Structures are given as C-alpha cells and as structure tokens.
Amino acid sequence: MTTTDEASQQGQQDPREEPFEVDVELLTQDQLDGLIDEYCTRFHGLNESESPLAERGKVAAAIRRGELKVWFDPVENTAGLATGG
Known about the structure:
Blueprint: H1 3-9, E1 20-22, H2 29-41, H3 56-65, E2 69-73, E3 78-82
Antiparallel strand pairs: 1-2, 2-3
C-alpha cells in the first residue's frame, strides 16, 4: 500500500496536495508583478478604490515586510498572495 492510499483511506489529505509558501526570491519580477496585479484587482468593485492598480506599491511593500506571502496550490495549479502562514 502506498502512502497516498494510506492517507486517502484514513481520510487525511495527501501532504503533497496542500498549499505551500513560495519564497519570493524564486520568482521573476514579471511573475511577482502578475501576482500583485491579480491581488489588487481580485475584489474590484468591492473595494472603495476607483483605481485598484494604484495600490500596487502598497502591496509590493507588504510583500517585502512579509505581511503578504506567495502561496502555491498544487491541486489547482495556482499561485496567489495571502496573509498568514
């Protein structure tokens, strides 16, 4: 029996399927800019900013301070910015 089979039989998620934090230093500037843009526009219409991309500098600063982190979800094959750890 493999580890994956054991985890599914016990009702536990395979650890290889859990989202994980990505070191920002591993990303290109283009990748990071795309994540920042996505974060700024994700809730467009729900925030009070008429120009959500104007917040890019604040988001980049939050990443540098460690307040926002890059997370990768291997199941969905997506990355995004989020707080917490």
